[in-house]
Design a protein that fits this description.
Elements (H helix, E strand, L loop, with lengths): L11 E2 L9 E2 L7 H9 L7 H17 L3 E4 L6 E4 L10 E6 L5 E5 L19 E3 L7 H7 L8 E4 L5 H13 L8 E4 L14 E4 L6 H8 L10 E4 L5 H8 L1 H5 L13 H19 L26 H11 L1 H12 L7 H11 L2 H4 L1
Parallel strand pairs: 1-2, 8-9, 10-11
Antiparallel strand pairs: 3-4, 5-6, 5-7
Bound molecules: zinc ion.
Zinc ion binds next to loops.
Length: 357
């Protein structure tokens, strides 16, 4: 009859009772009965003796008129609802608390429970009748007879590569009836991972910038040209702002990625790339870096031989160092606020670290 986790029904007493077998209205601090009394009679005194007397009188009256019965001796006298007056009805009405939203299910013929106080211990709300409204979109969706089944999986940067690729193929090609049709992803999906075409995208928060937003939703609708995009706004300032001004996110400015050119490490790397570019364009046929490292046969190659790839590059740079440095710094100078970085590059180069490692 009762759910395993439901509270077991207990008989009622109006006397002080500390053994937990009975539910007692008696209080000298506060309990549910006193709280409900204060809610129902907001102008009455909460004086404990008065509350205890009230419940004693109330339960006695219920017993006299036959709503409750009384059993037990002086020590453990207790009350229960008189079974013969219980009315069971198959038509049910719903009341809802106007404050906490909790529901009370009563017999449809019951006219006295409406406008009573909420049964929740801490809530001071009042029950009122739920107006039957037309089911909304989601109620219709969840109640329809044939629902498409969702086969979902996560897609994040922490997945093992093989696992991740299998999921991508399963989602993209859908070889089986139970292939993935939903992917729950982090923003790693922005990184150009090929999962084919989407017809729906849901963001669970508003992305930081318009460019992120467009990357995240841009996957959807590529083949059909139309897609459903849902964006949830969380209750934080950023999200709420764009909830009010969605167009600012959808049509906002797209900032081109930029970097701080004076940063010496960027400059060093750029210079190395510049040298490699010059080396390969000097003789595109001979000067190329193999696509796979294995073709260099590093275990058998003589690393100090002048014809070894790295040594050929180094001797090229050494032979052309003046030209490379001048061209590179001249190219960069107009864009730099502080040309000290280029001087640093030169001294870095001349220290020979550049061509020795
Ligand atoms: Zn309530």
């Amino acid at each position: 009859m009762f759910h395993p986790r439901a509270r077991f029904p207990r008989l009622l007493t109006t006397k002080a009772h500390g053994q937990g077998l009975l539910d007692s209205t008696y209080t000298n601090t506060n309990n549910w009965y006193r709280s409900y009394y204060l809610k129902s009679f907001p102008l009455a005194s909460g004086y404990h003796e008065l509350v205890n007397d009230f419940y004693k009188k109330l339960i006695d009256t219920f017993t006299t008129i036959g709503l409750m019965n009384k059993l037990g001796d002086e020590e453990i006298e207790n009350y229960a609802i008189e079974p013969t007056i219980i009315l069971v009805e198959n038509k049910v009405a719903n009341h809802v608390c106007d404050s906490c939203g909790s529901k009370l299910f009563v017999a449809a013929s019951d006219t006295i429970s409406i406008h009573t106080k909420c049964l929740d211990y801490t809530c001071t709300g009042t029950y009122s009748q739920i107006q039957k409204s037309k089911p909304n979109y989601y109620q219709l969706v969840y109640n329809r007879n044939l629902s498409p089944r969702i086969y979902a999986s996560e897609h994040t940067g922490i997945l093992e590569r093989k696992d991740r690729e299998n999921k991508e193929i399963d989602f993209k090609e859908r070889p089986k009836y139970n292939s993935l049709n939903t992917i729950v992803a982090t923003s790693t999906l922005e990184m150009g991972i090929d999962i084919g075409t989407l017809n729906t995208a849901i963001n669970n928060s508003v992305p930081p910038l318009t460019s992120n937003f467009l990357q995240r939703v841009g996957r959807a609708g590529r083949t059909s040209g139309s897609a459903l995009i849902t964006n949830f706004a969380q209750s934080k300032a950023h999200d709420l702002f764009y909830y009010g001004e969605p167009k600012d996110m959808m049509e906002g400015e797209i900032a081109t990625p930029g970097c701080y050119l004076e940063a010496k490490d960027i400059l060093y790397r750029h210079f190395l790339a510049y040298c490699l570019d010059n080396w390969s364009s000097a003789d595109p046929k001979k000067n190329s870096i193999p696509g796979r490292l294995i073709s260099l046969q590093l275990s058998r190659a003589d690393l100090s031989a002048p014809e070894f790839l790295a040594n050929r590059i180094i001797s090229f740079i050494k032979a052309k160092e003046k030209f490379l440095l001048t061209e590179f710094t001249e190219f960069y100078k107009p864009d730099l606020e502080d040309s000290k970085a280029l001087d640093n590059l030169k001294s870095f180069y001349w220290r020979k670290d550049f061509t020795s490692g």
